[in-house]
Amino acid sequence: MKNIRIKLGLALCLTIGFSEIAQAQTARSSRSNQPAILTITPNEGSGLSGEARTVEVWAGRATAIDFTRVNERIIQIFLADPSRFTYATDTPLDKGEATTLFLRQIIPLRFPNLTTARVTNLFVKTKTADGTMRLYTFNLQAGGTRQRYNGLSVATTSPEPRQSRRERTVQVSASGSISIDDIERGLQVAIARRYTSAHDPIVSKVRNFLATARTNSNRSLTQLAQMVNLRTDVLRQLATLGREESNSQSQNEVINPNLVRYSR
Known about the structure:
Helix 4 packs across helix 7. The protein is globular. The longest helix has about 30 residues. It folds into 2 domains: about 120 residues, Protein-arginine deiminase, N-terminal domain (Immunoglobulin-like), CATH 2.60.40; about 100 residues, no CATH class. It has 7 helices and 11 strands. Helices cover about 35% and strands about 25% of the residues. By secondary structure, the protein is α/β, with parallel strands linked by helices.
């Protein structure tokens, strides 16, 4: 009997161990498909299409924000709380040729009469070749234990053809699918109605997913969700919320707040 208990215990440990190893390998595989540089549009970077984009900077690492693809030169940088972050550009700002901003964490400093914040804001002013100026705004915060990306690249994306936009869907069942537009609309509704915080890590994942999906036509949306380690049931809940908002016929229609409950 004692030997049987030992064998059963060993089998259980091995089963759990192999399960954990498999999950870890799956997570590593998903992370390996994550783009090192995420693409955002000028409107997203300027905060004109929603909340300011959150940029994370990890200890001992750098995060880049690149404007090369939109051919914009950085002319001014303003960091609200410089006590925990520092920045540099690829060329000196006074030369008028800088196109890439590099951000790093530093050991916290104390500045007289300066307030601090866990999430501070960063402003970057740029100029195009024809003299047009644009102001970008970002929320800046320290990253967690694992770096998820190396930077952001600002790029103007052309609108997808109507047929192509219909094809950008996630298959959720044998009889239905959800679209990028539904997901994006649902995210905006969830934040506006405070079903979730704009700074929730899941919200950041969804935004990364949307930015990647808008510029990557070579992969299915299911594959893109896996690349950013985002569960499709979250996308399904957001899309449902987005569709209900779109199809709402009256101001008095109530959408169930329990619809969007993220599983972390």
